[in-house]
Amino acid sequence: MIAEGAEVVCLDNLISGELAHIAHLRGHPKFQFVEHDVASPIQLDGVDAVFHLASPASPNPDSQKSYIAHPVETALANSQGTHELLKLAERNGAGFLFASTSEAYGDPLEHPQRETYWGNVNPIGIRSCYDESKRFGEALSMAFFRSHGVKARIVRIFNTYGPRCDVLDGRVVPAFIGQALAGLPLTVHGDGSQTRSLCYVSDLVDGLWRMMNEPRTCGDVVNLGNPEEHTVLEFAELIRKLCGSESRIVFEGLRADDPTRRRPDIAKAQALLGWNPTVPLIDGLERTIQWCREQPA
Ligand code: UDP
To answer: How much is the pLDDT for 62?
Structure first.
């Protein structure tokens, strides 16, 4: 966005974020960081666009950065936080984008997932602080669109990876790369037959930017993700190979409510935004592995 000429104010309470991830932006005259919890009121003027991406997003129960470790903060970031940021957008007449999630579909009974699918979510399960608050955030965004005229749109983001991912937050790509580079066993949950479709981060960012800049997306929801689907075991084998690692693959218990299949239908993004993922899986993984290699142990 800064490259497009925008001035950016970045709000984060650092519950799962890292200042190191914005080190390259700090000191830039068009970038400002404010340590702030979006669930608290915020006063900012001259805002043209609000991107609400603030929420823990890792389901790993062993990570201190996951939404499982911070269920109340997660539920509030996506409910109260969405309310505060919608009010901010309304006061400024700004565009608003709510970062929802493929988790809104739960363990999907429809495959691939289209935006018209209403989902199969456990409302009191261990993931519900995330899934249900994202679903509420979608509903609140639509309420502000319908009754307050806020230019709100919703993106359902599918699994995304790339440089500046967090090896400690337990998500599948950084977890497997970290293990493979350290010569530790790659921990596949269950028998590894569950599927995911991985989108490289620059493709996702391109989609978010197009979404905000396309007026026809107001009051609408669009999937963003890469439809190339693989099993988790395939990801483990590929990452081990690309890392040149001799690590073993071990099988552990499946996480509660771990979706068995996930792949976005992106026909709507293609039609509305002219968007397609462009970075092939192997290229994206190689770039991510290279970045991980450059990080301090
Ligand atoms: N997974 C795994 N081993 C790990 C981390 C994740 O087998 O060390 C599996 C996890 O059980 C899930 C998939 O990889 O089926 C994606 O998990 P992730 O935490 O990245 O995100 P999710 O899609 O579940 O939100």
So the answer is: 87
73 CA → ligand 1 middle, Å: 22
Q: Which residues are catalytic?
A: 130
- Atom 25, ligand 1: which residue's CA is nearest? 59
Q: Is the pLDDT of residue 261 over 80?
A: yes
The model carries a pTM of 0.97
Looking at the chain, how many residues does it have?
297
From the list 99, 81, 227, 74, the residue with the least C-alpha distance to 152 is: 99
**Mean per-residue pLDDT over the chain, rounded:** 96
β-partners of residue 94 are none
Pocket of ligand 1 contains residue 187 by CB under 6 Å: yes
pLDDT tens per residue across span 279-291:
999 999 999 999 9
If one counts every other C-beta atom within 10 angstroms of the C-beta of residue 67, the result is 29
CA–CA gap between residue 127 and residue 133 (Å, rounded) = 10
Which domains, from first to last, does the chain contain? 2-160+199-228+263-279 (3.40.50.720)
Instruction: Tell me what pLDDT residue 166 has.
Output: 86
Q: Ligand 1 mean position to 234 CA, how many Å?
A: 13
Predicted confidence (pLDDT) at residue 37 exceeds the cutoff of 90: yes
Phi, psi torsion values for 9, nearest 5 degrees: -110, 120
- Residue having the nearest C-alpha atom to atom 1 of ligand 1: 172
